[in-house]
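Regression test case RT-17, inverse folding.

Input:
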C-alpha cells in the first residue's frame, strides 16, 4: 500500500507556550493524545487502549517544532511533526501537523487528528 504525506493546519487560541506544553508534557498528553505516556531521554512511549508505540524525538525547538519518528516505522523518510507559529495579524496560534498514512486511510487519519486537536482545544482553553 502506498504511503502518503498528510499536512493539516489547525488554529488554536492557546499561546504557543501552552500548545508546546500540551505536545511535550506527559500530564498534558494524556488529556488529549493518549491514555498513558512514558518519556525517557528522547523516547516517548505512548499507550492507547493497552497497546504501546514508541517514538524517537528527533527534533525539538521549544515552542516552534517537534518531530518524531515511530520506532517500528521502517521508512526513514516518514515522521510525525508539529510546527507551532503565531499569526501576526490575529495573534492566534497555528499548529501544523505532518503525518503519514496509507493511501486508502487518508480521510480517517485526518478525522482522527481533527478529533484529537479538538480535545486539545477543550483541555488547553484554546
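Golden output:
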Amino acid at each position: 500500500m502506498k504511503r502518503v504525506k498528510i499536512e493539516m493546519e489547525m488554529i488554536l487560541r492557546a499561546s504557543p507556550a501552552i500548545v508546546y506544553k500540551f505536545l511535550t508534557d506527559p500530564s498534558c498528553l494524556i488529556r488529549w493524545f493518549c491514555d498513558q505516556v512514558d518519556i525517557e531521554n528522547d523516547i516517548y512511549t505512548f499507550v492507547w487502549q493497552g497497546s504501546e508505540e514508541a517514538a524517537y524525538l528527533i527534533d525539538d525547538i521549544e515552542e516552534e517544532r517537534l518531530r518524531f519518528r515511530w520506532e517500528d516505522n521502517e521508512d526513514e523518510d516518514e515522521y510525525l511533526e508539529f510546527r507551532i507559529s503565531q499569526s501576526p495579524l490575529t495573534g492566534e496560534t497555528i499548529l501544523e501537523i505532518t503525518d503519514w498514512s496509507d493511501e486508502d486511510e487518508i480521510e480517517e487519519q485526518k478525522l482522527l487528528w481533527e478529533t484529537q486537536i479538538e480535545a486539545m482545544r477543550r483541555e488547553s482553553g484554546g
